Amino acid sequence: MQNLRSKSLIAVRAAVGILPIVSLFGAAHADRFYGDPPDANHPWAVHDGNRPQPPRVEPGTFSTQEKQGTPPSDAIVLFDGSEGSLANWTSSKEVKWVRTEAGTLQCTPGAGDIHSVAEFGDCQLHVEWTAPTEVKGDSQGRGNSGIFLAGDTEIQVLDNYDNPTYADGFAGSVYGVNPPMANALRKPGEWQFYDIVFRRPVYKDGVEVDSGHVTVCSSMESSFRTAHHWKVAAGIKNGRSRSHSQK
Predict the structure, then answer these.
(1) CATH number for the domain including 69?
(2) Of 56, 106, 124, 230, which is the most exposed, with the fewest CB atoms less than 10 Å away?
(3) Got the DSSP string for the chain?
(4) Total domains in the fold of the chain
(5) What's the mean pLDDT in 140-164?
(6) What is the pLDDT of residues 21-42, one digit of tens each?
(7) Is the domain of 75 the same as that of 181?
(8) Whole-model pTM above 0.85?
């Protein structure tokens, strides 16, 4: 389950989507393998011709400030700007996030968190968001929101354009864990882009065998990385350590 949280106004453009993680490198076209055979850590021999080919995915297009991009063919699109896509989200509040005439998803005061109806584990998440053009407040009190992965690990959304705050609460940070590598934000009212690669923690017989990790790239047009391969560990929510679900 992915969770969008807002403590003040925030708009999300229609290109929010989840993509299954797909290997970038496939097997060589060969009827035999070369090199080392399979072992405990490598289930396939080097260049094994029997290894399955990568699935074909039609690539999408990048968004710009003027025009929304298109998702790749294997994306699960959670919001596409239509009224019908609101059914992909749920909230316990009577006040709801609203779809604007421009086709964005906007939080209204008192609406609180929204959660995706679908649940996800390992994923690649693309989010486009913008902070209000009417600048109010400072530090954490300006356009504050967040993206919660598996309900626990928060990627901070915040208007930090000319607005300093504590480092591990900056936009693009793994909140309360690690600050972003740089501040790559555009001005309020301009679209910000996050591409997040998340691998959930893995348990075996109740014991954590892989703590998981998250990588965040901000400002998609320039592919600027803000957080690289941070361990998820116990997870952070509201600055407090939590234990991840073993599901």
Answers:
(1) 2.60.120.560
(2) 56
(3) -EEEEESS--EE-TTEEEE----S----S-SS--S----SS-SS-TT-TTSPPPPP----B---SSS--B--TT-EEEE-SSGGGGGGEE-SSSS--EE-TTS-EE--TT---EEESS--SSEEEEEEEE--SS----GGGSS-EEEEETTTEEEEE---TT----GGGSTTSBTTTB--SS-----TTS-EEEEEEEE--EEETTEEEE--EEEEEESGGGTEEEEEEEE-TT-EETTEE-PPP--
(4) 2
(5) 91
(6) 443 344 444 455 566 788 888 8
(7) yes
(8) no
